């Protein structure tokens, strides 16, 4: 590693000033705040030697030699030997996108061929896909190669990646190396980077059931995920409150179950658009259709799917979880998941399985009878297992892998060995035990507990998110390898298009670095400095990412 | 609450109204809840092509009244959000006129602490009559009227009689433009939303430790050296004028705060010699503390600065801060200690602070401004002018009642902010806490209660800038707005308020205000930005 980069005034401006008045609160709040702010106060915002790179690449070599970039000369081009050529629209789109990030849309102009370029000017970034199959027209997957190597030097910079997925990440990294000198000219320092993710699954969950999220908001956040090298959009698309997914097979589900059958639904064309937009940014879309609980909205368009609850000996008129004792339930699920597996190309589907409330099942005499017949006694988790196993068998026939929330594992449901267990419950101790249990049973796992970003609090809570490490639990090396990554969850009770983006960013960026960068990247001061500039970069790209602390961005958010 | 005088006839009117059942569902769209009203259940359609605002024949204000003329234009668009010229034909509808009558022509003035905001609205078939003492009252009435028009595919209205007036004269929102710079556009948008909730004071915490964005004409170095950026992160004189004039058209006062002697780090950059040099042993440490109270030059500077500020900001009140003064730097400085000796303050630095604040208050009094100071000042002072307002910010969660009791007992007027620090976010429906505050529920006489002039919602800026200001402020601040405007007895049930506030939040969205959801649910027109 070499010396400090010359960065813009922006870095110097990250002075920390504490307004004491605002930390003054009595009693319990006081203690809580102190806990948070004392830590924060230690942060010293000195420019990082890594500039504004976020998430930090695995290996970085920076030098002080700098080159100029000008919008009139600079181009991103396919390398001569690249296996992805002009026909790879994924890359061509990305070239344009990153050119615009770096130079702004307005400044696009014709290549000035007659203009002589100076000796210290960098005029080209060559993108070289090295593997015979660039995967340009494929979908990213859990096993996609996302690695890349970037060398910024004269006469041109070279970005080498086996697949397009690595190239996308490399373009983002390249754009993060570009900075403005004190006269506003774009510069980049001679740099060598070799990079790959620590975890293969780096996700964000958005909940479009508690509040409907307009497509525009989803797309903007996919865009931002790409800036943070997040590669999974976990679409918690339906839940108790509403069913906005417009099913071709069962159109009544959204017709009756959405907040509004026309203005608050995702049509097949919308879903397709989201999937393609995500693919172009190397992001997988994993839909979640959570059952047997969390299904109130399903019942409106699919009569008899839910269990009628009883009050004494009479149906009370309310409904509980999916009715697990009817054949019609499984016929419905077969058809439904057949559609889902065709609509969503990813190899995984999330089946939920969390928080099943047994009281309604208990109240229903038909269910009680069924329990007796099956010999389940009074153990309703056996009934849940019964349901889930039948569902898993159904989904298996669609040749999809599946992810389920941890309860399904906790309740002892028989699972296929390649099932992904999504850990979301408990405090630190409890989720670490759970990770140990899941992996010692040989299952692969995914962590979300420390990253429920919907749970807001006053202060710099990103630091807590940053410090959580999914491999921090007691277990063997083999067990640790079963951790495929994690997801930041933004549940929708209090979130809609009005506040989603600033609530998610840059807090989710903290999770992004934890999941991408090397395990030993834990310097919170260095992170604060890089993240502060990274957030201003997101703002500059039109994303209303909220501030970390008192300070400013050279270009404040204008989309008011 | 109804004062005697020219509104005696309204007293009777109010009595009649108060015996009628509150028919909540028919005015559920109005936030904050009006004081007294009755309405019919029939509804009549409104036709944008035959809808008129006009001045009553007896009205002191007539066409040409800048405040009302521009309000008519704004409210037309708010009442008919889907209206596009000439393409719709509602010939079957009858014309409708809103006739506004004002007692005093204060069209070109500014709202102030005594401005009456009461109004009397009567809506009957084909016309509405809005009567108010001042244009500011008329603005509140127009806001109410706009909320009464139902926006269910087509606009329609119900007949109604209403008498409305605020419970407190001071209903403010503090924005902090020092910890983060807020673009002027963000401030203007906030002023719009404030008017929708009938807030009437914008407390502009314009400078503080981190930055000094106010571009002073007397001391341009303050912002050229003390702002985050001397060109892009400042408020020019014309920016400030724009904010003030926009606020005026909405009936909102702009109360500037220039906080000293603490919270002034950014001032020191452009005004050498203003701050106290801190000492480390016998030598200056290179760091600076609060404003140096021992130098005559300090008071000369302050006199010039406040003279400018007083002429730039028309409001008769000015906020002088005075909070959280850290004495350690003063203590370290030998010159300050010598001054203490000379003044006979001993080692009581609160006396030094009192000395400083007295001088500042005297400066602003001489400029005919009434001072508002943070409550800290009260603790050190026996001798602040009786008309000074103490701003209560300490004592969360429940001890601010003691502060109110203690300070009003001394006969001082108070402004309550402590329970409304809405920069302190938490998970869930914290608006309920803001709603259930009882500003006058403290031990004290009726006279003491009357010294509570109102309250203020504070949005401190550590974690807030243009990216997240609006959804953090709205609709949480609206909860406090109802507490400050409406009758407490009629609005004591937070669960009853919930659906009304949800409805109001959707109304804010419809008006382009990025107001966040209270809980799960949806609005017919969701926010379409990012």
Helix content of chain A: 25-40%
Helix percentage of chain B = 25-40%
Q: Provide the residue-averaged pLDDT of chain B.
A: 92
Q: Tell the overall outline of chain B.
A: elongated
User: How much β-strand is present in the residues of chain A?
Assistant: 15-25%
Number of helices of chain B: 18
Q: Sum up the overall morphology of chain A in one term.
A: elongated
Stretches with pLDDT under 50, minimum 5 residues of chain B: 1-26
**Uncertain spans of chain A, ≥5 residues at pLDDT below 50?**
1-41
Distance between the termini of chain B: 45 Å
* Number of separate strands of chain A: 17
The main sheet of chain A orders its strands as: 8-9-10-13-14-15-16-17
Which strand order does the major sheet of chain B show? 12-11-10-19-18-17-16-15
- Class based on secondary structure composition and strand pairing of chain B: alpha/beta
Structural class of chain A, by secondary structure, is alpha/beta
How far the N terminus sits from the C terminus of chain A, by CA atoms, comes to 41 Å
How would you characterize the largest beta sheet of chain B?
8 strands, parallel
How many E strands of chain B?
19
State the main characteristics.
heterodimer, A: 560 residues, alpha/beta, eight-stranded parallel β-barrel, seven-stranded mixed β-sheet, 17 strands, elongated, B: 530 residues, eight-stranded parallel β-sheet, six-stranded mixed β-sheet, 18 helices, 19 strands, 35% helix, disordered N terminus, glycosidase (chain A), glycoprotein (chain A), lipid metabolism (chain A)
């Amino acid at each position: 590693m070499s010396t400090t980069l010359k960065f813009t005034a922006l870095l110097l401006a990250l002075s920390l000033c504490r307004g004491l008045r605002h930390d003054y609160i009595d009693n319990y709040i006081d203690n809580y705040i102190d806990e948070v702010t004392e830590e924060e106060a230690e942060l010293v915002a000195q420019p990082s030697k890594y500039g504004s790179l976020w998430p930090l690449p695995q290996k970085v070599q920076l030098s002080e030699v700098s080159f100029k970039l000008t919008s009139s000369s600079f181009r991103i081009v396919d390398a001569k030997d690249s296996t992805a050529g002009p026909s790879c629209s994924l890359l061509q789109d990305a070239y344009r996108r990153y050119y615009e990030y770096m130079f702004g849309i307005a400044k696009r102009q014709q290549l000035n061929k007659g203009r002589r370029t100076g000796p210290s000017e960098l005029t080209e970034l060559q993108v070289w896909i090295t593997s015979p199959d660039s995967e340009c027209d494929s979908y990213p997957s859990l096993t996609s190669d996302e690695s890349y190597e970037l060398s910024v030097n004269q006469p041109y910079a070279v970005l080498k990646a086996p697949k397009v997925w690595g190239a996308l990440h490399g373009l983002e990294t390249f754009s993060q190396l570009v900075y403005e000198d004190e006269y506003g000219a774009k510069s980049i320092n001679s740099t060598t980077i070799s990079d790959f993710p620590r975890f293969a699954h780096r996700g964000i969950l958005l909940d479009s059931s508690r509040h409907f999220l307009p497509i525009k908001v989803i797309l903007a956040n996919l865009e931002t995920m790409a800036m943070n090298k997040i590669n999974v959009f976990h679409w918690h698309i339906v839940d108790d409150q509403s069913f906005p997914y417009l099913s071709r097979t069962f159109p009544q589900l959204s017709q009756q179950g959405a907040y509004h059958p026309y203005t608050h639904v995702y049509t097949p064309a919308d879903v397709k658009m989201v999937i393609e937009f995500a693919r172009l940014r190397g992001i997988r879309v994993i839909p979640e259709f959570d059952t047997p609980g969390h299904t109130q909205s399903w019942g409106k368009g699919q009569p008899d799917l839910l269990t009628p609850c009883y009050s004494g000996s009479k149906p009370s008129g309310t409904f509980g979880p999916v009715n697990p004792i009817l054949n019609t339930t499984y016929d419905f699920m077969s058809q439904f998941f057949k559609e889902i597996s065709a609509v969503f190309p990813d190899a995984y589907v999330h089946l939920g399985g969390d928080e099943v409330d047994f009281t309604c099942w208990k109240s229903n005499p038909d269910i009680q009878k069924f329990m007796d017949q099956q010999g389940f006694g009074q153990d309703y988790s056996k009934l849940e297992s019964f349901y889930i196993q039948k569902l898993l068998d159904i989904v298996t026939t669609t040749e999809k892998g599946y992810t389920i929330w941890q309860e399904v594992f906790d309740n002892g449901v028989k699972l296929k060995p390649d099932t992904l267990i999504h850990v979301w419950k408990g405090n630190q101790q409890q989720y670490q035990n759970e990770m140990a249990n899941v992996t010692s049973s040989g299952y692969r796992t995914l962590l979300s507990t420390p990253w429920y970003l919907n749970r807001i609090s006053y202060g710099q809570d990103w630091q807590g998110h940053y410090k959580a490490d999914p491999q921090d639990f007691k277990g063997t090396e083999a067990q640790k390898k079963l951790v495929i990554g994690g997801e930041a969850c933004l549940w929708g009770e209090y979130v809609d298009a009005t506040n989603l983006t600033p609530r998610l960013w840059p807090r989710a960026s903290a999770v992004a670095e934890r999941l991408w960068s090397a395990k030993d990247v834990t310097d919170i001061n260095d992170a604060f400095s890089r993240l502060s500039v990274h957030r201003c970069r997101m703002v500059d790209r039109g994303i209303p990412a909220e501030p970390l602390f008192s300070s400013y961005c050279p270009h404040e958010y204008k989309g008011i | 609450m109804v004062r005697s005088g020219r509104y005696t006839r309204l007293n009777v009117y109010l009595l009649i109204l108060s015996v009628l059942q509150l028919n909540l569902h028919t005015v559920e769209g109005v936030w904050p809840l009006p004081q007294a009203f009755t309405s019919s259940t029939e509804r009549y359609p409104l036709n944008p092509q035959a809808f008129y605002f006009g001045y009553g024949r007896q009205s002191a204000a007539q066409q040409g009244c800048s405040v009302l003329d521009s309000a008519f234009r704004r409210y037309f668009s708010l009442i008919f959000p889907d209206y596009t010229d000439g393409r719709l034909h509602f010939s079957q509808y009858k014309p409708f006129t809103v006739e506004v009558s004002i007692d005093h022509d204060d069209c070109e003035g500014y709202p102030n602490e005594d401005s009456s905001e009461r109004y009397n609205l009567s809506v009957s078939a084909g016309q509405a009559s809005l009567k108010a003492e001042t244009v500011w009252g008329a603005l509140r009435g127009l806001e109410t009227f706009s909320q009464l028009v139902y926006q269910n595919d087509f606009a329609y209205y119900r007949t109604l009689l209403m008498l409305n007036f605020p419970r407190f004269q001071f209903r403010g929102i503090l924005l902090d433009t020092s910890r983060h710079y807020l673009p002027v556009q963000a401030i203007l948008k906030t002023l719009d939303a404030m008017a929708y909730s009938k807030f009437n004071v914008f407390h502009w915490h314009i400078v503080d430790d981190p930055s000094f964005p106010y571009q002073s004409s007397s001391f341009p170095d303050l912002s050229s050296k003390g702002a985050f950026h001397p060109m892009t992160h400042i408020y020019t004189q014309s920016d400030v004028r724009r904010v003030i004039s926009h606020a005026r058209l909405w009936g909102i006062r702009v109360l500037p705060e220039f906080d000293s002697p603490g919270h002034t780090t950014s001032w020191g950059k452009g005004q050498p010699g203003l701050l106290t040099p801190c000492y480390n042993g016998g030598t200056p440490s290179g760091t600076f503390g609060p404003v140096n109270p021992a130098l005559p030059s300090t008071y000369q500077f302050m006199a010039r600065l406040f003279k400018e500020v007083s002429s730039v900001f028309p409001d008769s009140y000015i906020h002088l801060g005075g909070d959280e003064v850290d004495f350690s730097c003063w203590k370290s400085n030998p010159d300050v200690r010598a001054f203490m000796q000379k003044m006979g303050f001993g080692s009581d630095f609160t006396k030094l602070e009192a000395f400083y604040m007295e001088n500042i208050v005297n400066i602003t009094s001489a400029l005919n401004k009434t001072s508002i100071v943070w409550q800290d000042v009260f603790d050190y002072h026996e001798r602040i002018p009786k008309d000074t307002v103490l701003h209560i910010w300490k004592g969360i969660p429940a001890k601010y009642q003691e502060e109110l009791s203690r300070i009003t007992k001394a006969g001082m007027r108070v402004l309550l902010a402590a329970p409304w620090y809405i920069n302190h976010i938490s998970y869930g429906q914290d608006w309920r806490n803001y709603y259930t505050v009882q500003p006058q529920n403290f031990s004290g006489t009726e006279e003491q209660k009357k010294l509570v002039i109102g309250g203020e919602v504070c949005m401190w800026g550590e974690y807030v800038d243009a990216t997240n200001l609006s959804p953090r402020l709205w609709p949480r601040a609206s909860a406090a707005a109802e507490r400050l405007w409406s009758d407490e007895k009629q609005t004591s049930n937070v669960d009853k308020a919930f659906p009304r506030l949800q409805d109001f939040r959707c109304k804010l969205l419809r008006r382009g205000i990025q107001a966040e959801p209270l809980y799960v649910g949806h609005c017919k027109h969701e926010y379409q930005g990012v």
